[in-house]
Every structure is written in C-alpha cells, then in structure tokens.
Amino acid sequence: MNDARAVGAQIRVRLPSLTPLEGKVAAAILARKDITDTTPLREIAEAAGVSEPMVVKVAKKLGFDGFRDFRQGLIEYYQSESASLHTEITPDDTPGVIVQKVFRTAMQALEETFAILDLEAFDRAADYLHRARHRDFYGVGGSAQIARDVSHKFLRIGIRSSVFDDSHMMMMSAALLGPDDVAIAFSHSGETAAVLDAVELARKNGARTIAVTNYSESTLAHSVDVVLCSTAENSPLLGENATARIAQLNLLDALFVAVAQKDRATADANLARTMRAVQFKRKQ
C-alpha cells in the first residue's frame, strides 16, 4: 500500500471477512499504536492470546504479504497525519474540544475515503448513471437520507431518479428494471436484507448495480457491478455510521459532478431552469 492514509481504511473495509477470533486478533493488533519495526511476532501473538501462524493468517486476510508487511503498514499509518486526526470523545471534554474532535474525525473519514477510492469504478458508476433510462436508489434509515440527497442533486440538472426505502417498494421497483436501468444500493454495513434482496432481483433482470457501502468484503459489495467504498473509524459515541455519512455525501457529490460533466451543456441549462422555478419561493 503506497499511501499510508489507506492502511487503516483498507484494514477496516476487510474486517467483515474475518471470523470472530480473527477479528479479535486484528483489534488487538490495531490497538498497539506503540508498535515499532522491532516488535516481534511472538509478542503480538502472546498479547492477543493466539498462535504466531494465526497472526500471520490475519495479516494476509487483511491484504498484507505477512506479519512484517502488516507491521510496517501500521507503523506508517500511525505516523501519518490522517491517523492522528481521530481522538475519542471523553465525558470531561469541553464544548470546544467536542467540536474539534467531531470535525477532525470527519476530516479523517474524508482523507481515508479519498485514499482508497477506486477511480476506475467511480468513472464506471458515473457512466452507468449518465446512460441509464431509469435510476432507482435503495436504502433504509440513514442510508435512505443519503439516497434522497443525491437524488435531489440529480433532479437539479434534469436527471430523474426514484428513492425507495420500503422493502416492498424496493422489490416492485427492481422487478420493473431492465438492461437500460441502474439500481444504486446504499448500505453502511452492506448486509441490509431489504437492500440485498432488491439488488439481487434488479441484477437478475439485467440492470446495472452500484453499491455505496463501508465494507468492500460485505455481501452487498460482492453482489453488484460497481462498489464505491467509504470508510470511517468507529467511535463509541458517534459510531461509524455518522462519520461515514460525511464521507459518503462527499463521494456522491463528486459522482454528481462527474455525471454532470458527461453532458455539461445540458446540465447547466437544466440547472438554470430548475433554479428559476424555485426562485420565487424565496422571500425578497
């Protein structure tokens, strides 16, 4: 991994592929922010309560060549500015400190999401959306709010889309999609049953499918044509979802601009029309 900012993110997006025991080992290693290039494999294994081969196995499942590569990646990551942005919120924090910590955690999510972004996948997603006849967005809870935000932006430039946050409506939508259509699935975990079912049906009917998720090894990520990954470090109070939402909103803002650029003249003309249509609603 050439970009130190990407190390923590690459580990987090692969965590769902680990067994509970492997996940425990990974968490124990990630907690070792004092790790150095002389920290022996034996010490890490003993601290985690597992064998040395188990530590090597976890390192490889997380995308490294072995323990030494894993160790070096962590050293470089913890020395990066991105890793230092995140600090846990404590009960004694003042309002000023809370604001600083929340903002810096969001900045970390943006930095690391940018570092792991697959630009080829991003461009394919923009192309699918530009060419599509129908664009249907699926998500529940907070993910549905992200879907609505991007749908609103697309409407401003004349690109129509529909947002579905009900399991039955998602399935009805997916049943009507075909080869000229696109379905975008929004799911932080990548394991939301209603979204998975709808995506499976949409793809069965020939539609292009795109996932916006936090985990590249999730069921959803393995079920679609294109995966756009966000990443965020978990926080006991804020949680992953809240911070990842900032990264996903920015990622989709970029996707919106990329789609607009496919036919900039039309996008600009439609933007002017929609702005004029709502202008009179503002108090003078």
TrEMBL record:
Instruction: Spell out the InterPro entries in the cross-references.
Output: Homeodomain-like_sf (IPR009057), HTH_RpiR (IPR000281), RpiR-like (IPR047640), RpiR-like_SIS (IPR035472), SIS_dom (IPR001347), SIS_dom_sf (IPR046348), WH-like_DNA-bd_sf (IPR036388)
Q: This protein's superkingdom? A: Bacteria
Q: Which residues form the SIS domain?
A: 125-265
* CDD domains linked: SIS_RpiR
Is the Transcription keyword given for this protein?
yes
Spell out the SUPFAM superfamilies in the cross-references. Answer: Homeodomain-like (SSF46689), SIS domain (SSF53697)
Which Pfam family, an example, fits this chain? HTH_6
Q: Which GO terms describe its molecular function?
A: carbohydrate derivative binding; DNA binding; DNA-binding transcription factor activity
Q: Does the keyword Zinc-finger apply?
A: no
Where does the HTH rpiR-type domain start and stop, copy by copy?
Answer: 5-81
Biological processes per GO annotation: carbohydrate derivative metabolic process
Q: Which UniProt keywords apply?
A: DNA-binding, Transcription, Transcription regulation
Any idea what this protein is called?
Answer: RpiR family transcriptional regulator
From which source organism is this entry?
Answer: Gemmobacter aquaticus
